[in-house]
Design brief:
12 strands
């Protein structure tokens, strides 16, 4: 099958145009084949809200992504890069077994809304310092100079790492995210080699820290992981390393995208921007609407443990399911006028952060970062303007991340 035919066969989902604006493609798919088998991806695609909501928490589906991860490696010599798969298989996000339960218990304590709310003063201090540095500038990049910095700095605080390592953490997060979310036409050899180099560098960086925290634990997540014990077992150094990478990549990446895209989209709906500026107390509802309107993570991936039927289609054991979060969040059967931002939308049962067993453990942190970042940005730069009428998104099919959001401060 030619590339053009494959793109047509898959409703254009795997095209550069869909990376920049996937929503027309989702709409066509949802209206014509809401439960769709893609030969190109060898997977099922689900675009209706009701289906996505159900599939996010079905017990007969697995989040184990070993097979998917192997598909990201060079076909000729994937075996020599199997340690990359082993690393990501230690991520809590990609497990639903006893290991998942051990790590989840640890995160449930650290990431409850009440526990996260205690981070607000630290987060406010971080935001103030970043905005103070930008205050004297006529123009800056609201993504690179602001949105991308706050989540990384919060992660440094959670892991008790020095501020001087901010750029390194951001680089690792960006490149690991690029591997996991995959460009439209990836160079698998180059990406696998880059991942090997990053994981080696992370091991050299984190292993001495882990050993140090074992001897002198502090009040941070690495120390908590070092001391955690479930059923008489402690986490291994490699498990702690993988979890540190997961926190930086999965947590920081989605938050920075949400913050930057919120500042962009508010200018596409100036009535909503005016409403939020006039009533800053709407920020909690507004944050939920930003997460619905353009979800940083556009899809979830599951594997069928057993045969089952949904939407009149038979899903076979072992088949891959792509749960299209971005499509579900624009389903008119669930959301009135879904292609418009309404910062007073309530209720707003978007599926961006999941629910049930695989509800995003960092949801409370992501929400707080988004609320604090956007509300303080609007307070400090109420008259900000976009320096360009175009936004370019990174070449990824499963996530939304802008390359930049240049703004004029006044």
């Amino acid at each position: 099958m030619s590339e053009a035919a494959a793109a047509l066969e898959s409703y254009g989902l795997f095209t550069a145009a869909a990376v920049q604006d996937p929503y027309p493609y989702y709409k066509a798919l949802r209206e014509r084949e809401p439960v769709y088998w893609s030969e190109k991806a060898r997977a099922w695609y689900f675009t209706r809200y009701d289906d996505v909501y159900e599939l996010q928490d079905r017990p007969d589906l697995s989040v184990d992504r070993v097979e998917t991860l192997y598909s990201y490696l060079p076909r000729a010599n994937s075996g020599q890069f199997s340690d990359i798969v082993e690393h990501y298989h230690r991520w809590l996000l990609y497990r639903d077994d006893a290991y998942h339960d051990r790590l989840k218990g640890l995160f449930l304590k650290a990431m409850t809304p009440r526990a996260v709310e205690r981070l607000r003063p630290m987060m406010q201090r971080r935001v103030d310092i970043i905005l103070d540095a930008l205050a004297g500038r006529e123009a800056f990049d609201a993504y690179l100079d602001f949105a991308a910095r706050l989540p990384t700095q919060v992660m440094l605080d959670l892991l008790d790492l020095p501020d001087s390592d901010e750029a390194t953490m951001r680089h690792w997060s960006d490149r690991c995210s690029n591997f996991l979310f995959q460009p439209v036409s990836p160079d698998k050899d180059a990406m696998a080699k880059e991942q090997r180099e990053i994981l080696n560098a992370q091991q050299a960086y984190f292993m001495p820290l882990i050993e140090q925290r074992r001897g002198r634990p502090g009040d941070d997540m690495i120390s908590a992981m070092v001391q955690a014990e479930v059923g008489g077992e402690r986490l291994t150094d490699l498990e702690i390393l993988a979890t540190c990478n997961m926190m930086a990549t999965a947590g920081g990446g989605t938050s920075r995208s949400a913050i930057a895209m919120s500042l962009w989209w508010l200018h596409q709906f100036p009535d909503q921007l005016a409403k939020l500026k006039a009533n800053p107390g709407l920020i909690n509802l507004a944050a939920e609407e930003f997460l619905r309107f353009d979800a940083p993570t556009q899809r979830g991936i599951r594997t069928a443990r057993e045969d089952f039927e949904i939407g009149g289609k038979r899903i076979r054991k072992g088949q891959i399911l792509h749960i299209m979060i971005g499509a579900a969040n624009r389903d008119p059967e669930q959301f009135a006028d879904p292609d418009r931002i309404d910062i007073t939308r309530d209720p707003n049962r978007h599926v961006t952060l999941g629910h049930g067993v695989h509800y995003c453990l960092g949801a409370a942190l992501a929400r707080l970062e988004l609320r604090v970042a956007v509300s303080n940005f609007l307070r400090r730069f109420p008259d900000y303007r976009l320096a360009s009428d175009k936004i370019v998104f990174m070449d990824r099919t499963a996530s939304r991340r802008p390359t930049s959001v240049p703004v004029l401060a006044h």
